[in-house]
């Protein structure tokens, strides 16, 4: 269904809408982050007119306050440590990180928080942009408010919710008043505080504790539970805790803040065990879907809750199948790469349902949005969300995982065997650094002899993950995987050691 966006197509320039602006597009995407961009792009390839609505910066969380700036902060410390881990190179390392240079490089990766380049990309693909906060006002209808003006947009075919997630601030007395950092402030800071208290034990908490320790802060991590990275294999959290402590970070488990007070240029965090003081406090206790003010109640959904979708990313609870949701807002995924995967599928589904090719094949056309009618490996079904989620934590050591942990596999009813080997058994790992550390863990379905999950803990293990992902997604039988010969001497030879440990 192709048609012009109407006389108000000047939105692609990013100019503000007029008070009487009414527009019609085939597809309306709420959220201009990486996930929303992918959904818009794939739908547009089907010949549909598409508009993206974004209240902040086009490019979203990943580009400016998450993936890109956080890894830019973490990489220099990792490189410096890698050099110091090899005799001969270590003697050439005579100084510490140049903090100003690290922050400047980070700024460049965040485009200095200017989205002009991202807007230009939208324009190049023929996707329009409307800036402002969007709310559904009824079926296929969105109202956007920006600088006192309103734009009403009607979607002929579909609306895609791609608004991401937002940090959760726990209800600790005084915390909100203390104006704590969230991940945004931590990744965008232009000065490094002398000291930092981190509340939480997940990915953001451990990565930012690592980064700020590298940059010279005295870091204390307060964890309510008894381990870090609670959704991963216990060995991963144990290794990361040990790595943080090696770098001077004070990691305290079983510690719950009871009050936070900002006094002058610093904060006091009270706990049952005493008071921790620091220049700043970072709240990294989790995130929730950003769905609280989207007008979901006008179409029968609960504001603030995950927007539940089927495997075609369609919101089945909304009649006529016009509403889709992708990324963090669904509660299915919590990473940019997995959200982009969902977005590509949703965009393809929408294009196949409503695009030019679908109109040409209307007679006898099988609607791909009916996920239950599609095979498991169809490009119109997000099956990876169920058993092949991937995650990398860029701490030191790094943690990379795909699929199910041993505990999750057992809980799901699988007959499993855990296989674990240290990287010290691999010659390539010894060549990479003088003090070999880390381990690799496989979770094997013993009935089918296929991988259900894999976890790697050690330096640069992110680069090992995709091979494991292919094995999990492809359900490659271990006897066949035995014939995938890893090159020598590389760290990937750990695959040979794992299969030998299994008994092949």
TrEMBL record:
<comment type="similarity">
    <text>Belongs to the class-I pyridine nucleotide-disulfide oxidoreductase family.</text>
</comment>
<dbReference type="Pfam" id="PF02852">
    <property type="entry name" value="Pyr_redox_dim"/>
</dbReference>
<feature type="domain" description="FAD/NAD(P)-binding">
    <location>
        <begin position="25"/>
        <end position="338"/>
    </location>
</feature>
<keyword id="KW-0547">Nucleotide-binding</keyword>
<feature type="binding site">
    <location>
        <position position="328"/>
    </location>
    <ligand>
        <name>FAD</name>
    </ligand>
</feature>
<dbReference type="GO" id="GO:0006103">
    <property type="term" value="P:2-oxoglutarate metabolic process"/>
</dbReference>
<keyword id="KW-0274">FAD</keyword>
<feature type="domain" description="Pyridine nucleotide-disulphide oxidoreductase dimerisation">
    <location>
        <begin position="391"/>
        <end position="495"/>
    </location>
</feature>
<keyword id="KW-0285">Flavoprotein</keyword>
<dbReference type="InterPro" id="IPR036188">
    <property type="entry name" value="FAD/NAD-bd_sf"/>
</dbReference>
<feature type="region of interest" description="Disordered">
    <location>
        <begin position="1"/>
        <end position="22"/>
    </location>
</feature>
<dbReference type="InterPro" id="IPR001100">
    <property type="entry name" value="Pyr_nuc-diS_OxRdtase"/>
</dbReference>
<dbReference type="InterPro" id="IPR004099">
    <property type="entry name" value="Pyr_nucl-diS_OxRdtase_dimer"/>
</dbReference>
<dbReference type="GO" id="GO:0004148">
    <property type="term" value="F:dihydrolipoyl dehydrogenase (NADH) activity"/>
</dbReference>
<keyword id="KW-0520">NAD</keyword>
<dbReference type="InterPro" id="IPR016156">
    <property type="entry name" value="FAD/NAD-linked_Rdtase_dimer_sf"/>
</dbReference>
<feature type="binding site">
    <location>
        <begin position="200"/>
        <end position="207"/>
    </location>
    <ligand>
        <name>NAD(+)</name>
    </ligand>
</feature>
<dbReference type="InterPro" id="IPR050151">
    <property type="entry name" value="Class-I_Pyr_Nuc-Dis_Oxidored"/>
</dbReference>
<feature type="binding site">
    <location>
        <begin position="163"/>
        <end position="165"/>
    </location>
    <ligand>
        <name>FAD</name>
    </ligand>
</feature>
<feature type="binding site">
    <location>
        <position position="71"/>
    </location>
    <ligand>
        <name>FAD</name>
    </ligand>
</feature>
<dbReference type="GO" id="GO:0050660">
    <property type="term" value="F:flavin adenine dinucleotide binding"/>
</dbReference>
<protein>
    <submittedName>
        <fullName>NAD(P)/FAD-dependent oxidoreductase</fullName>
    </submittedName>
</protein>
<feature type="compositionally biased region" description="Low complexity">
    <location>
        <begin position="1"/>
        <end position="18"/>
    </location>
</feature>
<feature type="disulfide bond" description="Redox-active">
    <location>
        <begin position="62"/>
        <end position="67"/>
    </location>
</feature>
<dbReference type="InterPro" id="IPR023753">
    <property type="entry name" value="FAD/NAD-binding_dom"/>
</dbReference>
<dbReference type="Pfam" id="PF07992">
    <property type="entry name" value="Pyr_redox_2"/>
</dbReference>
<feature type="binding site">
    <location>
        <position position="286"/>
    </location>
    <ligand>
        <name>NAD(+)</name>
    </ligand>
</feature>
């Amino acid at each position: 269904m192709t048609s012009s966006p109407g006389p108000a197509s000047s939105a692609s320039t990013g100019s503000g809408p007029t008070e009487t602006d009414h527009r019609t597009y085939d597809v309306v995407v709420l959220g201009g982050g990486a996930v929303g961009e992918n959904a818009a792009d794939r739908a547009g390839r089907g010949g549909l007119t598409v508009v993206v609505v974004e209240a902040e910066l086009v490019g979203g969380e990943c580009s400016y306050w998450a993936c890109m700036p956080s890894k830019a902060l973490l990489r220099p410390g990792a490189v410096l440590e890698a050099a110091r881990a090899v005799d001969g190179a270590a003697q050439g390392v005579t100084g510490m990180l140049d903090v100003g240079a690290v922050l400047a490089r980070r700024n460049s990766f965040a485009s200095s928080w200017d989205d002009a380049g991202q807007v230009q990309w939208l324009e190049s693909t023929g996707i329009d942009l409307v800036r402002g906060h969007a709310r559904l006002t009824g079926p296929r209808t969105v109202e956007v408010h920006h600088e006192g003006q309103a734009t009403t947009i009607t979607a002929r075919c579909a609306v895609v919710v791609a608004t991401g997630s937002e940090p959760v601030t726990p209800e600790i007395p005084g915390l909100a008043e203390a104006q704590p950092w969230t991940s945004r402030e931590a990744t965008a800071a232009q000065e490094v505080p002398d000291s930092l208290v981190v509340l939480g034990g997940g990915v953001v908490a451990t990565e930012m504790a690592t980064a700020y320790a590298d940059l010279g802060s005295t870091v204390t991590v307060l964890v309510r539970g008894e381990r870090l990275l609670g959704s991963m294999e216990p060995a991963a959290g144990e290794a990361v805790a040990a790595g943080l402590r090696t770098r001077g970070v004070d990691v305290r488990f079983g510690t719950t803040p009871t009050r936070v007070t900002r006094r002058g240029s610093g904060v006091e965090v009270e706990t049952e065990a005493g008071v921790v003081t620091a220049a700043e406090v970072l709240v990294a206790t989790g995130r929730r879907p950003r769905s609280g003010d989207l007008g979901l109640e006008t179409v029968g959904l609960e504001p603030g809750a995950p927007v539940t979708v089927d495997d075609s990313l369609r919101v089945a609870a909304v009649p006529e199948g016009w509403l889709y949701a992708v990324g963090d807002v669904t509660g299915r995924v919590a990473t940019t790469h997995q959200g982009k995967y969902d977005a590509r599928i949703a965009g393809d589904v929408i294009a196949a349902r409503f695009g030019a090719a679908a109109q040409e094949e209307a007679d006898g056309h099988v609607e791909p949005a009916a996920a239950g009618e599609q095979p498991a490996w169809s490009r119109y079904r997000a099956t990876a969300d169920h058993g092949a989620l991937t995650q990398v934590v860029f701490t030191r050591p790094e943690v990379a995982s795909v699929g199910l942990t041993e505990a999750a596999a057992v809980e799901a009813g699988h007959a499993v065997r855990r296989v674990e080997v240290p990287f010290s058994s691999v010659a390539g790992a010894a060549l990479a650094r003088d003090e070999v550390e880390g381990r690799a863990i496989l979770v094997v379905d013993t009935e089918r002899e296929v991988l259900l999950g894999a976890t790697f803990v050690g330096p640069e293990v992110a680069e090992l993950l995709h091979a494991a992902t292919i094995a999990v997604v492809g359900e490659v039988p271990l006897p066949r995987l035995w014939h995938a010969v890893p090159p020598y001497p590389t760290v990937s030879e750990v695959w040979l050691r794992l299969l030998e440990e299994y008994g092949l």
